[in-house]
Amino acid sequence: MSSNSISWSNDIVEPRPVVDLLHEWVTTVDHKRLGLLYIAFALTFLVVGGIEATVMRLQLIRPHNNLVSPQVFNRLFTMHGTTMIFFVVMPILFGFGNYLIPLMIGSRDMAFPRLNAFSFWVMAFGGLLLYFSLVGANGLYGAGNAPDVGWFAYAPLTSQTFSPGHSTDFWTLAILVSGFGSIGTAINILATILCMRCPGMSLGRMPLFAWLYLVTAGLVVLAISPLTAAQIMLLVDRYLGGHFFDTQAGGSAVIWMHFFWVFGHPEVYVLVLPAFAFASEIIPVFSRKPIFGYSVMVAATVAIGFISMSVWAHHMFTVGMGAGANTFFVLSTMAIAVPTGIKIFNWLGTMWGGSIEFRTPMLFCIAFLFQFLIAGLTGIMQACAPFDWQLGSSYFVVAHFHYVIVGAILFCTFAALYYWFPKMTGRMYNERLGRLHFWLFLIGFHLTFDFMHIPGLLGMPRRIYTYEPGRGWDIWNLIVTVGVFFQAAAILVLLVNLLWSFWRGTRAGNDPWDAWTLEWSVSSPPPPYNFSSIPAILSRRPLWDLKHPGDPDWRYEGTP
Amino acid sequence: MSATSMMLRQPVPEELPLRGRVGMFTLIGAESAVFTIFVVAYIFYIGKSLSGPTPQDVLNAPIFFSVCLLSSSLTIHLAGKALRHRNVATFSRWWFATIALGAIFLYGTAREWQRLIYHEGLTISTNLFGTTYFSLVGLHAFHVIVGLLCLTFVFVFSVLGYVEPKHEYQVELLSLYWHFVDSVWIVVFTVVYIVGR
Amino acid sequence: MRTSSYYGWNRSSAPILCVLCRSREVFALPAHSLSPTNIFAPASTPAHSIFGVSLFVLAVTGAIFVVVFSLLVYTVVRFRKKVDEGSEPAQVYGSTQVEVAWTVVPTLVVVALFMATVRVIADTQRVARPYNALEVIAIGHQFWWEYRYPRLGIVTANELHVPVSDSASPTPTFITLLSADTDHSFWVPRLAGKTDLIPNHPNQMWIDPRETGLFLGQCAQYCGTQHAKMLLRVYVQTADEFNQWVKAQRQTALPTSAASEGQRIFESTACINCHAVAGTSAKGRFGPDLTHLMSRDTIAAGVAANTDQNLRRWIRNPDEIKPGSRMPAMQLNEAQLGAVTAYLETLR
User: Fold this and answer.
1) A134, exposed or middle or buried, with CB in 10 Å at 0-12, 13-18, 19+?
2) Any C CB within 8 A of A507 CB
3) For residue A196, which residues of chain B lie inside 8 Å, CB to CB?
4) Which of C58, C185, C323 sits opposite A318 (nearest CB)?
5) Most CB within 10 Å of its CB: which of A211, A239, C186, C289?
6) How many domains does chain C have?
7) Is residue B4 part of a domain?
């Protein structure tokens, strides 16, 4: 008997007490349930982070506005950035990874199920800790203060001198703690992929999804730790009288930047590689062709992983590192554009000659391709250090990274939500609502983030709670704010679709998309043990082989 | 529905690594990254203190205690070997020697810190040297303590008779961690007592 | 004796940049009117160099965009599923030639972009200061700018005056950037790219404005509550105007009798802890130097016009104009406020 509450039979089943159900979910070590918990957690914080963004944009709708005070605005952008990166995008990507990796590689669960549960709850605790700062940062009787040092918390602004009280500590500890969860998940992903593949699934035959998560996990292991280290140093400075970043004692503010960005840059690849994973699974299925250039995609991914560890100081071009250092980081940053571009071309090559179906997941993936192209090109512009001396720390950068995080990553995540929704819930989402979500969000996204580049080009720096009239920024800020409402409406449509379809959607079979990877070979939703017997496979598309026994992939692949 | 029925040829069986080993190596990788940052900070701040005691003034290389710690790598290896040869009693003895040597090392660190803080006036807040020294050595000592706790658990289990030869795999994983802690000390010792002075 | 070719336009880059120069002129006029802080309206060599390379980068990325965008559109349109299609399309797994092609071409593009970039980095950063350059030390504070002219013996705040420079015989201004507290960034887009002011990490930048006028900017590195209102005003003047300004700034405050009540209050309360007025007992350095306060157009780092009303508002309660600024409300009654304001208004 399946422990899922969705049942195929018409028998009358005694409803179980809610307490039992809650207990099951809180104590679960099943990768599928933890995956769903991650996704639900992330979607909740997406709404919270979105509200923070909306308030900021309303404050900036016109110059010298006073919807919120500067102190509140500064907390808003700090919380918005921290929430979105650590408690929305990372959890939702870990959620999909957790749910799908064991299914895709033919195993029954992740390598360390209890570590998996621990990682989720620790991450969730970190998120709650961050928001507890709203009431807790000044002690029981003072008014609470969220952190206001920016999501990258540059020293010496974070020292006790300039940030008294505890708001900064909530930022530090919340991320420190959730970082342990991230490392735990990364350990799990690495061990699962390396050690638990089903018979026949060599590394060269596993879905690209698994490869992308493998490299992501490697990056997490190497990149989160520098942030952990820097945050420990910050705590030593703030509470033990240390001088790591104390410029009065000869310490260096720049070294915080180096440590932070050694984390921060690979972090954005941690965010984007799983989005590539989704695209690499969805685009082939809706083009009805295998991914073009599997081996090259793998090589490009690994190259991106390596190069991403060497580009961090392109966030510091204006800091005064000297011509030599600037030149090196220009080179490494431009170099990473090559494997990234190769990926775009390979997705294009996948669609070329195919038979494209414009279902909702594919709509989001196609938009992703256009938008990621633009995001990459604005990235190249900033890779040119002198150009970055103008563009850096301005709204151009804000537009660029939102283009990546929203235009590429979030779009792919929406695609993934719709694509795997039938597998996870056993029901189809509503296609018309899906399209409505797509078009609303597309319009809103472009209104906001296309036009956001312009104030940057006209000299508007970031993190300002208001701006002077007469700089030529007014109309662009207005348009940017208008776009927010379309996006908000779209998210509402998404949530309605997800919830309504979960209760009332038409039943989905095992394989509603006629896809080719192993997760589509089991029921929707899968049984707790995933596979009744562990599959043995011969090619990268085991289900294609099954459906086309006269023309199986293993005849053409040449994989060992 | 199972996919085994689709096999027309036998897939090539692959020798997959063990989960525990991959997990432990990954953890070691993450910890190495943390230590690297602290070592980089230490090296960057060499000679940059504006005032207060310098390494040359106050540091004495703890050779004896380092030898103890590094020997504990040998003893833990011998313990593992004994267990592989199904000799639980010998395993217990070498395991205890490992714990003892680790504890001696910690005692040495504590003694040095007491001397530095109370007699030389070097604390974590004195100057850049103090901050980076106590942080780096302290982080390492923390990892030694965690390791010793785990080792002690295993020792208690073995005294109570719960450890069997089949546990050689778990013992190997713990040993990996312990070897890591020791190799970090080699790096820390070199940076702090040789390069930094 | 350095010529303009040393730090800007060297021979080999001239032909390429000449083409871009033309387009620059086309851009300059409307660009300038779009916004006083438009990065595409350069008025000084560093900004010009950046503008030149930015046009090249925009051209290259624009071309890439057009090509790939068109391919994407074509693909999406041409290969959509036909209604009567039953079977799967041809299953193509890859193509080595194509992969090589779209690896080699981007690599070449990257090389070209890199070469263009390195040239401009060197032109801007590896520049020796000419002997006749004006030296300024800019010190960032929360939330105002301190300017010192060491060779001229001037200390002032928030409004930077520099002489206009001429390509035939340039008189650039070299600015050393320091910080008294947290990180800041000096960004006047029409004059140069931004450079950060970081405590314990002095930086250098230079400008050689080619036209007179007022150039605007603001702090571009989040530095705390009032980061948004740490505005920059750079006054580029003719040689004569600049010399006059220097002469006036070097004088100490003229002693007056009419406002002595205000001066007495100023010097006996906390004002002198933070502010300095040359020639008096006020020698505080935490806040802006007020010796020539009335020579400035604005107060509070460019936030409010320097009028009697704004001065009173500011002194009565700075948070009203700039909430979170470091100056506390001075708790003066109306009479004291009037007297102090009158005194400050004598500081020309």
Assistant:
1) middle
2) no
3) 16, 19
4) C185
5) C186
6) 3
7) no
Residues C114 and C142 in one domain: no
| Segments making up each domain of chain A, as ranges | 19-557
Range of the domain at B115: 20-48+62-195
Domain harbouring C217, CATH code: 2.60.40.420
C-beta atoms of C204 and A320 within 8 A: yes
Residue by residue, DSSP assigns A328-393 as HHHHHHHHHHHHHHHHHHHHHHHHTTS-B---HHHHHHHHHHHHHHHHHHHHHHHHSHHHHHHHTT
ipTM of the complex: 0.93
Closest CA to C25 of C56, C53, C52: C52
CA–CA separation, A313 vs A333, rounded Å?
9
**Range(s) of the domain holding residue C150:** 134-248
User: Residue C299: phi, psi to the nearest 5?
Assistant: -125, 170
Interface contact A236-B124, CB threshold 8 A: yes
Write out chain B residues lying below 8 Å of A226, CB-based.
33-34, 36-37
- Asked if residue C273 and residue C243 are part of one domain, the reply reads no
A525: cis peptide before it, omega within 30°? yes
- Across the interface, whether the CB atoms of A262 and B37 are under 8 A apart is answered yes
CA-based nearest distance A535→chain B, Å: 5
> Can you give the pLDDT of all 560 residues of chain A as single tens digits?
444 556 556 666 777 889 999 999 999 999 999 999 999 999 999 999 999 999 999 999 999 999 999 999 999 999 999 999 999 999 999 999 999 999 999 999 999 999 999 999 999 999 999 999 988 766 555 556 899 999 999 999 999 999 988 899 999 999 999 999 999 999 999 999 999 999 999 999 999 999 999 999 999 999 999 999 999 999 999 999 999 999 999 999 999 999 999 999 999 999 999 999 999 999 999 999 999 999 999 999 999 999 999 999 999 999 999 899 999 999 999 999 999 999 999 999 999 999 999 999 999 999 999 999 999 999 999 999 999 999 999 999 999 999 999 999 999 999 999 999 999 999 999 999 999 999 999 999 999 999 999 999 999 999 999 999 999 999 999 999 999 999 999 999 999 999 999 999 999 999 999 999 999 999 999 999 999 999 999 999 999 999 999 989 988 886 65
Residue C266 sits in the same domain as residue C222: no
Residue A39's DSSP bridge partners are none
Q: Please judge whether B16 and A194 are an interchain contact, meaning their C-beta atoms are less than 8 angstroms apart.
A: yes
The answer to whether A120 touches A180, Cβ cutoff 8 Å, is no
SS3 C281: coil
**The CATH classification of domain A19-557, taken from the options 2.170.30.10, 3.20.20.140, 1.20.210.10, 2.40.50.100:** 1.20.210.10
Query: Counting one residue from A and one from C, how many pairs have CB atoms under 8 Å apart?
Result: 282
Least Cα separation, residue C168 to chain A (angstroms): 25
Bridge-based pairing state of the strands C159-163 and C231-237:
parallel
CATH number of domain containing B92: 1.20.120.80
What's the rounded Cα separation, in Å, for the pair C340 and C272? 12
Minimal CA–CA distance to A399: which of A313, A334, A483, A324? A483
Establish if B8 belongs to a structural domain. Answer: no
